[in-house]
Design brief:
Keywords: Signal. The chain has two helices and 17 strands. It is mainly beta. The chain has two domains: about 100 residues, Immunoglobulins (Immunoglobulin-like, Sandwich), CATH 2.60.40; about 110 residues, Sandwich (Immunoglobulin-like), CATH 2.60.40.10. The strands form three sheets. Strands 1, 3, 4, 5, 8, 9, 10, 11, 13 and 14 form a ten-stranded mixed sheet that branches. A hairpin with a 7-residue loop joins β16 and β17. α1 packs across α2. The two termini are about 35 Å apart.
């Protein structure tokens, strides 16, 4: 237990040092498959000075996505990116691989202006085991965040909560004998249940909250005769 707390503390210390030099930091939560807008809170007029830089792993080189207000076309996901009129970065059809730390930076005549504005993008994603009537299925809900900082340490320090609800919005717990809820850490939670014929079109939803306010959610709709649907 002491070792785990020590690791949490190290993660938070690293996070604090990482944010040094940033004028402002935002946290944006989104579900996989949705479109997202990342704000640029240090933008100058007309966006010609705007650069967007992305980093997912501390040991990997940062990737420049936008240079001088223009989208770079040699990046893997350039077709899903666009620059908003307010210099925000728009990403279409977000995937779990899009999570990470984004920097909005301003250059004028080759000189950086002010400090960076940072945005952490957190992506909520649901996957499942094979589904069929009469068999047990497990739904996995995971929050993907910047890889350098322990997600478990960060989510606990910020007062976030990850949980499953039914169609009526009622939180599912192990007190209901039909469900088995397992949370190996604060950033992943699974729901295991046996699929019944009457479960066709039933929806379960995974929520992430911050101080009791829902930030984003992902729903799983049971399709017994066809394919499962995640939204």
């Amino acid at each position: 237990m002491a070792d785990k707390c020590h690791l949490c503390l190290l993660g938070l210390i690293f996070l604090s040092s990482l944010l040094t030099g940033l004028s402002e930091v935002d946290h944006v939560f989104i579900s996989s498959g949705e479109d997202v807008r990342l704000p640029c809170n240090n933008a100058l007029p007309d966006c010609k000075s705007t650069h967007w830089i992305y980093n997912r792993f501390s040991r990997s080189p940062a990737v420049e996505l936008i240079t001088g207000g223009r989208k770079k076309t040699d990046t893997e996901r350039h077709e899903r990116l666009s620059l908003g009129s307010d210099c925000s970065l728009n990403i279409k059809s977000v995937t779990k691989e899009d999570c990470g730390l984004y920097f909005c930076r301003q250059y004028v005549n080759g000189q950086q202006q002010g400090t960076d504005a940072g945005v952490y993008l957190h992506v909520l994603h649901v996957s499942s085991s094979e589904i069929s009537a009469g068999r047990s299925v497990t739904l996995f809900c995971q929050l993907y965040s910047y890889a350098q900082v322990s997600c478990d340490a960060w989510i606990r320090s910020e007062g976030n909560d990850l949980f499953w609800v039914n169609q009526a919005g009622v939180k599912l717990t192990n007190s209901d004998s039909r469900y088995q809820i397992s949370a190996p850490d604060h950033c992943i939670i699974s729901l295991t249940t046996t699929i019944l014929n009457e479960d066709h079109n039933r929806e379960w939803r995974c929520n992430i909250t911050h101080r009791d306010q829902v930030q984003t959610s992902v729903s799983y709709t049971v399709k017994i005769s066809g394919e499962k649907t995640i939204s």
